[in-house]
Q: What sequence folds into this?
């Protein structure tokens, strides 16, 4: 598999990294939600940036050799990013996923030339993530020559956003208005980079986590939401950023779906993890207004913004989230 890059991969990632932000509307008295839109132009998600960035950084560091095969466990989005990046850079890509992967994502991955390996059934307690990890480990034993990007534990994960996303946000965000950030956590990659960015401006960051995630305590339970929360283990990436977690807001699947529907009424179509962020942001806003006054700034009459990150588009999930779990295709 030796495809010459159709474009300079560094130009591609520079373009992908220029994420736009949108005003997602009012939250509580004087406070509005500003969301970094993780999938503005590419029809994929922010994990396209991660997929390409992880391979570029690994090649720069001498961790990934020319033509070396790559393997990763994925709910779908990173898999698509890696598939496209692997094709661009000449690496065969093997992705371990589960039958819940959106059909459209699986098809796009296969079109990009990667191989999808699906688990047969979830682990009885630790769910699909554990079953994927088990399958990935057994494949790595058979193919020790594979390079495992290991998004959950690799410091390269937040580094990708720090290098290719944060500089653009630093130029485009109005930090004088931002009173807090709230982000969901899978690996913790984007939380790590964005909370460090906000921390540098003296702004605290919160987490919106789904029910059934063990990342911040709690019993493991399955969810219809993909990419957010952890059912089997706590990634080293979020562990390393834990000191920047100012607080955690927990959101159920039903509440996240209601959030997705509410955002639809504002003309914003996003996936379930964005619903988690939106509902978390509403609660954070109410707390900030209660504790510090209008706009969360402590100054009467002032207004402010909570920054969040909308990872992907609602269309990926058909009407599943709009019907709160009842599956159907787009
Ligand atoms: C849709 C979606 N939202 C949120 C996340 C969590 O992002 P991170 O891994 O940076 O914590 C992911 C991760 O795969 C995702 O796919």
A:
């Amino acid at each position: 598999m030796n495809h010459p890059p159709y474009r300079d991969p560094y130009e591609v990632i520079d373009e992908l990294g220029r994420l736009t932000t949108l005003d997602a509307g009012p939250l509580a008295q004087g406070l509005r939600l500003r969301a970094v839109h993780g999938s503005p132009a590419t029809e994929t998600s922010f994990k396209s940036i991660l997929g390409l960035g992880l391979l570029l950084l690994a090649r720069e560091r001498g961790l990934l050799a020319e033509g070396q095969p790559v393997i990763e466990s994925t709910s779908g989005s990173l898999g698509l990013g890696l598939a496209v990046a692997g094709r661009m850079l000449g690496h065969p890509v093997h992705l371990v996923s589960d039958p819940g992967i959106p059909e459209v994502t699986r098809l796009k991955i296969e079109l990009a030339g990667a191989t999808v390996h699906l688990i047969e059934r979830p682990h009885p307690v630790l769910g699909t993530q554990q079953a994927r990890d088990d399958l990935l480990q057994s494949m790595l034993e058979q193919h020790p020559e594979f390079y495992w990007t290991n998004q959950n534990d690799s410091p390269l994960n937040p580094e990708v956003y720090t290098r290719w996303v944060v500089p653009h946000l630093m130029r485009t965000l109005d930090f004088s208005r931002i009173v807090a950030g709230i982000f969901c956590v899978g690996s913790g990659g984007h939380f790590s980079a964005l909370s460090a960015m906000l921390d540098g401006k003296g702004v605290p960051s919160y987490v919106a986590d789904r029910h059934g995630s063990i990342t911040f305590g709690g019993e493991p339970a399955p969810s219809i939401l993909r990419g957010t929360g952890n059912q089997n283990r706590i990634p080293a990436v979020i562990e390393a950023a834990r000191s920047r977690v100012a607080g955690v807001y927990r959101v159920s699947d039903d509440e996240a779906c209601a959030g997705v529907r509410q955002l639809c009424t504002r003309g914003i179509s996003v996936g379930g993890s964005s619903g988690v962020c939106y509902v978390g942001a509403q609660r954070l806003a109410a707390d900030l207004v209660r504790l510090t006054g209008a706009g969360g700034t402590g100054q009467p009459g002032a207004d402010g913004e909570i920054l969040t990150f909308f990872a992907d588009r609602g269309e990926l999930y058909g009407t599943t989230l709009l019907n709160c779990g009842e599956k159907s295709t787009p």
